[in-house]
Amino acid sequence: MRKLVAGNWKMNGLRVEGAALARDIAARAKAAPPVAEIVLCPPATLLVPVGEAIAGSGVALGAQDCHPEGKGAHTGDISAPMLKDAGCSYVIVGHSERRQDHNEGDAVVRAKAAAAVAAGLCAIVCVGETAAERDSGRTEAVVVRQLRGSLPPKLTAGQLVVAYEPVWAIGSGKTPTPHDVAAVHGRIRDALRELAAESAAVRILYGGSVKPANARALLSIADVDGALVGGASLVVADFWAIARGCG
Prior knowledge:
The chain is α/β, with parallel strands linked by helices.
């Protein structure tokens, strides 16, 4: 399966600048299709204009979150069927910023992932340890616990992507050593096998201060099947360099 590079724009971008960014990426993808699959995950307000800008380019559309329910009295929330209707193929669930800022535990993430799959979306399920957990030597234990608690049963590679994002690395400019990344991704692969998922085919992304300078090295590590890119996804040249680094 192709590597996957997903751009998480987070809470950034207004309509004009977001559409322009998406058009630039789409134009580059048409002119020189990258080896990797590319997904753009803009804020919900930009899903339609970004979707229109990337139509026919091979670049996929993703969202940053969804509600566990398909519809109902949930003011301010967006359901997975709504995202599918807006043209999304992917949705991020369980990002550390959701887990921390909105107190979302594994059970909530699991329900969101199940809702995404039921709506025909591929769920990008995020896991990762804090600096305190890392310093106490609990990285792998925390990641495996989150994974076991956050994944619905019997998902296939077409329904699931796992993103390992060490919380302490996000936006900090710091990254784990290649040895550490390989160890955690290998443990995630083992955990997927234990959970009876399509372990060999499920893509495991690395996220956390991914940039052009370190992308090629990170993407060459065993069991790193792509990247979840934050700040660098807002700069066309940087994001494109990361995607091209998969080649």
